[in-house]
Every structure is written in C-alpha cells, then in structure tokens.
Amino acid sequence: MPNQSYKSDAQRWTAIETRDDRADGIFFSAVKTTGIVCRPSCPGRPLRRNVSFYEDLDSALCQGFRVCKRCKPELL
Ligand SMILES: [Zn+2]
Q1: φ, ψ at 43 (rounded to 5°)
Q2: Three-state SS for 60?
Q3: How many A from CA of 1 to the centre of ligand 1?
C-alpha cells in the first residue's frame, strides 16, 4: 500500500485506529473534548465524533489545541 493516501476522513480514522505511524506528519488529529492535538499513532483512544483532522500542526494550534504530552506531535 502506498502511503500517499490519508486524504479522506475514513482513511485518517483507520490510521488512528490502527496506530499507523506512516501517517505521522501527514495529518494530525485534534480531540475537541480534551483540547489536545496528536499524531495519528498516539496511544490515546479518542471517540470518532470528537476528532477532527488537520493537515498541519500550526492550524490545529491556531484553533486553540495544545500538543499531546504522550505522542509529542511537535517533534515530527
Ligand atoms: Zn497524543
């Protein structure tokens, strides 16, 4: 499987469910209930309805999200 995908929300959610680290850096997942933004392979398990996707970290941070202390998406 080439990994230029992750274009649809369904593909992105699958990456989160499978903790697919190939998706790290391609998109970020922001959890509105916690106010935290993660890399796709984060061990955290958010609910689908609480997750939105960002193509770059700065966009999520501009929306008021903070970086996750577990997966440290700012280090990508
Ligand atoms: Zn995280």
Answers
A1: -70, -15
A2: helix
A3: 25
* C-alpha 16 – ligand 1 centre gap (Å): 10
Cα separation of 1 and 67, whole Å? 29
DSSP 3-state of 24:
strand
Q: Which domains does the chain have, with CATH numbers?
A: 9-75 (3.40.10.10)
Average pLDDT over residues 35-50: 96
- Catalytic pick from 38, 42, 68, 71? 38
**pLDDT the model gives residue 34:** 96
Give catalytic status of residue 42 as yes or no.
Answer: no
Prediction pTM value: 0.91
